[in-house]
Design brief:
The protein is mostly beta strands. The protein has one domain. About 10% of the residues lie in helices and about 50% in strands. The longest helix is centred in the last third of the chain and has 22 residues. The N and C termini lie far apart (about 60 Å).
Length: about 240
């Protein structure tokens, strides 16, 4: 399902000395649908706001409703360690099978990567987020810039194979939820039910809560792994036997 991610970054500058990434570890997470959801604003009808200031027609305003939708599926990440801190890693999204019935304009999407330090998991669409990731000891990083318009932030924990996250795309220029979207019509004329709504007027595309658990290998996979370990042990004993 397509996702809409509206981000606007301005004036960003990053100076870096990237190091060489270390070996990656691949992990699949399965979303727990009973404890995961997406919330998004949807069209809930029209509200008559009365006559225009010059009494030439009637203002009709969209009524937005915050609704909850399902979140399920799985995704796979690669853990890439930082070159400067043994607890600093990135989880890069390499396979995505996340499903939601949220509307297309505000459907849930995962970031390209998460930054992890210890148990903490974070992401931000700010252009300076997580700079210095591969900076080796003694090297310096600098970043300046800002972000206006729709921004994204995600945060949570990864403890014992359980990834718990909360995130949202919001408009940092607004404090009142969805923007007002209205049209003016002549007296006695009501909005067409099939009228296309301009969803770009929404300040908040979605917010979500997600619990995902590390996938357990299928029985066949586990059996093959055990057989492989057994064969390696047998070969080692043969080499060491007199």
């Amino acid at each position: 399902m397509k996702s809409v991610l509206l981000l606007a970054a301005i004036g960003s500058l990053a100076l870096a000395h990237p190091g060489k990434p270390l070996a990656a570890e691949t992990t699949q997470f399965v979303i727990d649908p009973a404890h995961s959801h997406v919330s998004a604003y949807i069209f809930n009808g029209w509200i008559n706001d009365g006559a225009t200031w010059d009494d030439t027609g009637v203002n009709w305003r969209v009524d937005w409703a915050l609704s909850t939708f399902q979140l399920s599926g799985s995704f796979t990440v690669e853990t890439i360690p930082s070159g400067s801190d043994p607890e600093w890693n990135r989880l890069y999204l390499i396979h995505n099978e996340v499903a939601t019935n949220a509307p297309e304009y505000a459907s849930f999407s995962l970031p390209e990567f998460f930054a992890t330090v210890g148990d903490s998991v974070d992401y931000s669409s700010h252009p300076c987020f997580d700079t210095g990731f591969y900076a080796p000891p003694g090297e310096s990083w600098s970043c300046s810039g800002g972000e206006m318009g729709k921004t994204r932030s995600d945060g949570g924990t990864l403890i014992g194979g359980v990834l718990e996250l909360d995130g949202a795309i919001t408009d940092n220029l607004s404090f009142w939820g969805p923007s007002s979207y209205s049209i003016v019509l002549p007296y006695g004329v009501e909005p067409d039910p099939e009228l296309t709504i301009d969803y770009s007027a929404l300040n908040d595309l979605f917010e979500y809560h997600m619990v995902a658990v590390t996938a357990v290998p299928e029985p066949e996979t586990s059996l093959l792994m055990l057989l492989g370990i057994g064969l390696v042990g047998y070969a080692a004993r043969r080499r060491t036997s007199p």
